[in-house]
Amino acid sequence: MKDIRxxxxxxxxxxxxxxxxxxxxxxxALAGENGAGKTTLMxxxxxxxxxxxxxIYFNSELINIHSPVDAxxxxxxxxxxxxxxxxxxxxxxxxxLGIEPKRKGLYDYKKACEIxxxxxxxxxxxxxxxxxxxxxTVGLKQKVEIMKVLARDAxxxxxDEPTAVLTPQExxxxxxxxxxxxxxxxxxxxxxxxxxxxxxxxxxxTIMKAGNIVGTYDVDKISIDExxxxxVGYDFEVSKLKSNVKPGKIILDIKGLSLTIGGKKxxxxxSFSIREKEILGVVGVEGNGQKELSQVLNGEIKNYDGDxxxxxxxxxGESILEIRKAGISYIPEDxxxxxxxxxxxxxxxxxxxxxxxxxxxxxxxxxxxxxxEFTDSLINDYGVKxxxxxxxxxxxxxxxxxxxxxxxxxxxxxxxxxxxxxxxxIDIGAVMTLHxxxxxxxxxxxxxLLISSDLKEIYDLAExxxxxxxxxxxxxxxxxxxxxxxxLGRYMLGIDVQENMGASL
Amino acid sequence: MNSFWDLFSSVNFYVTxxxxxxxxxxxxxAALISNKAxxxxxxxxxxxxxxxxxxxxxxxxxxxxxxxxxxxLVAGVxxxxxxxxxxxxxxxxxxxxxxxxxxxxxxxxxxxxxxLTGNKSDYSSVxxxxxxxxxxxxxxxxxxxxxxxxxxxxxxxxVVIIAMSFFLKKTVLGVRIRSVGMNAKAVDSIGxxxxxVKLIALLIAGGLAGLGGAYMSIGFMSSFNTGMIAGRGFxxxxxxxxxxxxxxxxxxxxxxxxxxxxxxxxxxTITGINIPYELLNTLPYFVTIIGLxxxxxxxxxxxxxxx
Lengths: 505, 307
What we know:
heterodimer; A: Rossmann fold; B: mainly alpha; ABC transporter involved in vitamin B12 uptake, BtuC; two-stranded antiparallel sheet; 14 helices
């Protein structure tokens, strides 16, 4: 089985040029950073996305896969990161959906239960087919998804970050079961960035970086260090942007944040502080707590333990509005969903914060002239490319949408700006603009928390950096010049933990 | 009639309840199967109206009540297709389509009657005969209520309730309809077209609403009248909501609404109470609102307990 393909999105190259081959009966890891193109590549194989160029060979025969149905015909199945289950139906119902067994023209539920039990034994687990999905743990739901794929006679099973939602015990169990499948000559692809897991159960690993395949290696013949280097390796040069600012006093102090969602610890006793004129980078492989951290800091999540102190005032449990009023602004990770109203105009997205201020109101009305001037100034200042400020946001490119969102938030930041992946997926010009603006904000006695999976960005902007792994701070480096990207990568992937952190893995 | 006691002890009152519950049962079953497929189908009201007229027209045309019912059924399915085509294929908002169909139906029936007869509100039909079953009708009380003066469509409504429960649980299509209502994406992800499943559910719903309409003009009365559905389609939706999508519970609430309806019609004849006729007529709708409020409160409590 051999494929060559290439994918272009409107303004992002998801996969530049990738060749990937799979041998029967192996467990193959597809590794790489977020946005490297792993999931996209697999979605093409499963027929969920269309390749713009390239071919797929199945047993040296050229095939076309237009939809998941085509993929299933070739006995390829995929378990998505987000489960596709019917919560109010039983396990058996879910497993046979679409391939229901029949008796005398009627739905044979007994047979469905039998099929489910049989699949359970294949999996070395006792399963109650009549349990409803809504009563299951995340780990079990995932198993139901895998069994669904098996029930459709798949021989090639793609798992998209299967362990991201699992506890360590569940992960162990899953691996045991995957090994059983391998013994039965199933072929398994695991999309992952957890190197220990690759070492533990995979035969071969294909590493992707920025839409390209770095290479495919036998897991026996490559060390964790080498994989990590190939995954995160960049050419670094000292940034011209970096100024010699001396951080001032502490503005934002995070004390022992912990958060548990669905039985899994998403944040585990996180403490750090941001000083005036400091850009603190937060790095880590996605899914290690960055999202939850930003949600706690901006007030989306309130039921956390620990405390957030801004200039000696506790913000614990405050609403999003109160936190904004206190002076923290936020560039959300997903500009399309949380950042801007795609169906509204640029003007509307730009003024959403300012329109609340007295200064921009005339009694009960908005002061249109002032708000328009404000919008114009943002557009000019950030070089947003648009025909008019009344254009729909969705007509803009990703970079220009991000400029609008960032401009609004940067202008609004009175004490601290939380920027979550501010430059992901946008063009280099927009990246430069935003970096400059972040730097200029820094020179105004404000603190910036820069959450980014782009190490180059962190090196370019941040003075200090903390590394999140599995919801914990595993390293804090006060001067980023003291750490090279290789060591940072080892922290990010959980290979090393800084000594004084006291965290154990 | 002299007192409430007279009312509640008369066999006729119970026959009226059943007669008035029947159209609501059809409507509620149409609402139920639509809702199972994840669709709020308010076009049931208009569908019933059109089918009631179509039934009346074809019953006189063929001089056969049965033919009238068959054509009403077909008209219902076609109305169901119109709704399905607009919501599924054209992706129009289902509430808006429902409103449009209801308004269309109201205008259409007046137009058709006027074109055919020259008057604007009535069209006489060949009514369905009542069925009197020997032996069974001799059972005291029950025989008089259930086996002496009801017609085919009433019995069909009871069959529909049982069949609906069976269909949703025991047939592949039934399970798929429920699956689509829960998570259409999950159904699509395994290669089953959720749109097709929705279409089938809506056609069945249209057919059921058609039978409900036919019952009004052929079974319950012997003529069609433009105001005769009188919100029964919507009350069916309410019964379905309160019945939480369970066929038997839904039917039970359809009967409750039938009871209230029967009471509002007959209470005027009780001597000694002076409730204006117009006020009594609002009773079924008033009870619908109260029922929905109680249902909403219970549901909210239950959700709270779950958290």
